[in-house]
What does this fold into?
Amino acid sequence: MPIDLFVDLLIFVPAIGAVAVLLPRNNPAAVKMIALGTAIVCLLLNIAIAFDYYGTTGSYGIGSGSVIKYMTDLVWIDSVNIHYITGVDGLNLPLLLLTSILNVIIIAASWNIEKQIKGFLCLYLLLMFGMYGVFLSLDFFLFYVFFEVSLLPMYFLIGIWGGPRKEYAAIKFFLYTLVGSICLLIVMLGFYFLIPKISGAEQAVANGKASFNMIALAEDGGFQRAFGQGGVYWTHAKWFFMLLFVSFAIKVPAVPFHTWLPDAHVEAPTPISMILAGVLLKMGGYALMRINYAIFPDAAMWAWFIVAMFGLVAIIYGAFCAMAQTDWKKLVAYSSVSHMGYVILGLAVLTTAGRNGAYFQMIGHGISSAMMFYLVGVVYERAHHRELGRFGGLWNTMPAYTGLAAVGFFAGLGLPLLCGFPGEALSLLGTFKASDWLTTAPEWVPFAGAGAEALVITIGIIAATGVVLTAGYVLWMFQRVYMGPAKPEYSYSGRESVQPREYFVMAVLAVFAILLGVFPSIVFSLTDATFGAAYAGLGDLVSNLASLVGAN
Amino acid sequence: MGLSYPPASEYWAVLPEMILAAAMCIILLVPVLPPFRSACRRSHKPMLIIGILGLLGAALASAGMLNQWFGTELPDHAVLGSMLTVDRYSMAFKIVLYLFSMFVLWMWGSITSRQTRTVDGPDYVSLILGAVLGMSLMASASNFLMIFLAIETASFPSFALAGFHKTTRRGSEAGMKYVLFGAVSSAVMLYGLSMLYGVCGTLDIPTVASVVAEQGLSVGVIVGFVGLLIGVGFKLSAVPMHFWCPDVFEAAPIEVTTFLSVASKGAAIILLGRLILTLGFYLPDTAEAHRMANGIATCVGIVGLVTATWGNLGAYYQENIKRLLAYSSIAHAGYMIMAAGLVSSSLGGAASSDVAGIAVQEPLAYALLFYVIVYSFMNFGAFTIAASVARSTGSENLRDYAGLGSRQPVLAILLGCFLMCLFGMPGTGGFLGKVYLGFEMWSAGMWWLVAGLVINTVFSLYLYMKPIIFMVFTKPDADRPAVAPVTVVPAAWLLMFVALIGILATGIFPDQVTGWARSNAALNYRSRPLFTPNDNRTIAATMMTADDETPADDHGH
It folds into this structure.
């Protein structure tokens, strides 16, 4: 079973690479090659997994005939019944591919770092280890461990290679995420004590102890009854849902938990901003889908309005903040807050379209935000400032770069046929469609009934203004930086001109931005079966995606 | 009131303590004997070796008794006039204590400067052994009088050790402070014990527990318990008895700090755990008893919570690594105290088992034992590194750790690992230790203690990141004199390696250690007092021993 092995290799190859980069002495080139080689190996493994997985259908469960393939289940800590469980399904595979692609690009983007390149790449590979672990682990406890493991390297990457206020930004990032993982821990304690008391929970209980298998919890009828509406632990389920939501909303980040993000982005070096926006924020969205929405479907229905409000506020508030920025990188950082708002909104409304939109937004934003941060980084490295007011006329002095920049920023803007559009459009569409299930929903769901239609239309319209605001701040920024008469201080030639390596990074990202914009079904073909199986019975039951995708 | 002597067969139960006492005598006698006098002047090695062998022998004897290598079971009741309970719980802690103290001696022998080692070698080793003796009695004590004696036995050598830098003003001050605090809290404890004796007519812990179970909490009992808690709390540096801790830890030699931070607090928490579990065991499983249990758990829990919070927040402004770790040890003691008050975890044990007194498995004891094991590894690691840095640079100031990340990367990474373990990062034993404590709090229904534990974990982040920030981010101060490069002796590497294995073994593959701790978390509650009280208030005690088939002269009248 080579593919089974590939899944676990994907986690441990970066860890091995992290040790391997420490070995060469005074040989930066070798260190970089080892890191790049590790990332490429991971990408190849991941592509092999994707091709093998393609077309899998089934139910969302642990047995055979499941959408989850290549499951490894080993006992790790027996006394608390913690297992090492990994597996691949439509929920994590596209994000894994995104991670693998970005890793290669980001290591290429960090090629010219001179300060302690060995330490940088070692920490980066450890971060990769954590990211793959988060996406692949199907045991709640294992997930938690990787969630924390990915924290430390990030802390040092910001803290050592960052800008002037790096220490402040690094500890703020650490503290915020730590508060989130503490919430996770409380839910785990709750699971440990409550699950064994549930009668009729077969998969969720092993040898009288709670199982932390996230798939078993989602599948187990006894567990679902107990934690569902009217069940014995219905109150607990609501608490757990909110605790988990806070934990992941910090990571996403949703307003008001977002304040770590602008600081972290502004201080982080360019490659780290790219991975932070490109992958680490998606951990939050992914975890919401894997844990909140798959394990607590009833609580998700109960909480739909609160969660939707978090999404809505993030979209609008993030966009206004972005508009107010004079620091270019901070603008891009706030645009992330705004864009990730669509992920939360799309998930909250519990429609197939919304869910697909949220998921696609994560992938699309992974590409576009990484590209935007790189575009800022390329100029910052030469101009040594990021003040929007001082730029101008880059189109004249750096025409090729500006062409690529247009792709990147317009993808962020959400222009059709670029990767930013399908996600936002589907999220909004899903919001409008929420009235389908809300009008017939049971009365314990907030705002269920006839009035739901007016409410979701209002939410949808407010959210849609976010698209306009986004266009506003992106175009205004584009005008201030790229348009206007050429300024001689931004004219670079010789060694200062944009290097082929930098063009490569931008071009690859631009290709993916266009590819995903034109063929969004690349993502949906992988996720469709899993979403249908995992969220059956949650919100509307439309699973005919072809019509939705065709609507673009 | 009558008195008789315990049968000789009971003396073997204190074999480890006897080995320690013998080693102490040898250490004190050998240097004055003419044949050895000059050898002992030249080197500290003979004393060190005797000390290490003594501790190792005691650890082996404990392990042997635990695993029946000598063909005899552990006694099924408290021995030597019901003064000491030699059960799996106390033996397991003693093994940890002896091995830990052995490593402390080793650390002293290899890292401390030569001058102090040679001149004060015998004093130092014998004082450590004396304190260990007291602590191991604390873990076994089954009588309030024994608790008092054990705490004093542990304290007096500790006072001397704390002031071991006797030529410096700070050292003397620390020793003095420790003595004063210790004396006051001992006095209060003694007062509390006299109240207990007045109410219950006995100082035998199981008997007192059964009297309390029968009569409920009277004012005298409450005053007695509070006094007792002050005495134990002093050893644990629980707020408000914590003031000595940072000052003593800062001024004492670094190995003494290591020793006090783990051994003394570990013994006190094991003692507190036994007290609380015994009380719970004899309480009946009634609503009233549950209320009483909750009340005690709440009071002790609040003390623990305040202690942990104080430790974590107080550390923010510390710039000395020993002070920082002192606050950290206050916080860790706080976590353990929070769990150690959960009377309800053993509630109703006596009523539910017909043979009261056969070793009872207690999950709370398991959580405490595991925490003490993990805590000894991680604290030992962190202090070994602090000692190594201090040996080379002569400084314990965090500012002199600036740039250590690039000068000594391996050392910096190791210190980072130990600090993250102390913080409770998943994948290290510190995390699992907290999780097990949290399990106990949750299952006792004390959800607010769980909340307090996790909030304190967040508070503690800065404490443990601070040295890392200095090592990795901070540039050496231009206006501070440059410090000598840090060189690490091979023995120190070895000790750090041991500690690292410890935190990884308890964190990544914990099943061996947790299995060991779980199987040894069994307490024995049966007592057989030699002194039988002359009033009729302790019917429970006579009931308990009524089914014994021991000769009547064991009970003398």
Notes: Residues 8-555 of chain B form one domain. Chain B has a mean pLDDT of 86. The radius of gyration of chain B is 23 Å. Chain B touches chain A through 28 residues (CB under 8 Å).
